[in-house]
Amino acid sequence: EPEVTQTPSHQVTQMGQEVILRCVPISNHLYFYWYRQILGQKVEFLVSFYNNEISEKSEIFDDQFSVERPDGSNFTLKIRSTKLEDSAMYFCASSVVLAGAPSTDTQYFGPGTRLTVL
Amino acid sequence: DAKTTQPPSMDCAEGRAANLPCNHSTISGNEYVYWYRQIHSQGPQYIIHGLKNNETNEMASLIITEDRKSSTLILPHATLRDTAVYYCIVGYTGNQFYFGTGTSLTVIP
């Protein structure tokens, strides 16, 4: 069964450093998402991406964050200058969203990348 | 913010049916009801979703009331591996999903 994959599973970085989290969405999916979950808190939406541009973003997704689909398979989240409060699990998700097929559509999540900022 | 209300925790005996309720009284006409679960800090796992008809798959059944203001996820024969946090979400898959605090289900041997 197709699944969303994410690398690395755990990333440790120093405050102020740039990190790139990588995701490989399910191959025929068109919408891509990033969510994060700070330890013990809710899963929070960051951004959605469709047709090579940001479709929707939350207030968390400020200028420190950016997303990119550098090729036909990868979807990345970059944090330019990490802060201690960026420590969290980051989840990538993807969905199909084809016109006429909403009843079969949902978001499928990857296993997450644990980001630790020291 | 999440547009759903769920009890914070529930227990269920192993082998029995687990019935997890969710209130979504402000659901819009075309919004779907989605259920996910999360085990520890793993990625949310999709369980089932529906619009207004009851749905069943290999994992669970989803019962949506006729007025669509509430729903119940049914795990027919709970196992210890079903211990997780269960999230009820309303919306559209192309839009952001709002995760609330969910229901922490503990399956007891």
Brief summary of the model shown:
The complex is a heterodimer of chains A (118) and B (109). Chain A is mainly beta. Chain A contains no helices and eleven strands.
pLDDT averaged residue by residue of chain B = 94
Order of helices and strands of chain A: EEEEEEEEEEE
Q: Give the strand content of chain A.
A: over 45%
Largest interface: A-B, 30 and 24 residues
Determine Rg of chain A (CA atoms, Å).
Answer: 14 Å
Spans of chain B with pLDDT under 50 lasting ≥5 residues?
Answer: none
Task: Explain what the structure shows.
The complex is a heterodimer of chains A (118) and B (109). Chain A has 118 residues and is mainly beta. Helices cover 0% and strands 48% of the residues of chain A. Chain A has no helices and eleven strands. Chain A is globular, with a radius of gyration of 14 Å. The model of chain A has no long low-confidence stretch (mean pLDDT 92). The mean pLDDT of chain B is 94. Chain B contains no helices and nine strands. Chain B is mainly beta and 109 residues long. The radius of gyration of chain B is 13 Å and the shape is globular. In chain B, a hairpin with a 4-residue loop joins β5 and β6. At the A-B interface, β4, β5, β9 and β10 of A face β3 and β4 of B.
Write the layout of secondary structure elements.
The complex is a heterodimer of chains A (118) and B (109).
Chain A: E1 5-7, E2 10-13, E3 19-24, E4 31-37, E5 43-50, E6 53-57, E7 65-68, E8 75-79, E9 88-95, E10 108-109, E11 113-117
Parallel strand pairs in A: 2-11
Antiparallel strand pairs in A: 1-3, 3-8, 4-5, 4-9, 5-6, 7-8, 9-10, 9-11
Chain B: E1 9-13, E2 18-23, E3 32-38, E4 45-50, E5 55-56, E6 61-64, E7 70-75, E8 84-91, E9 103-108
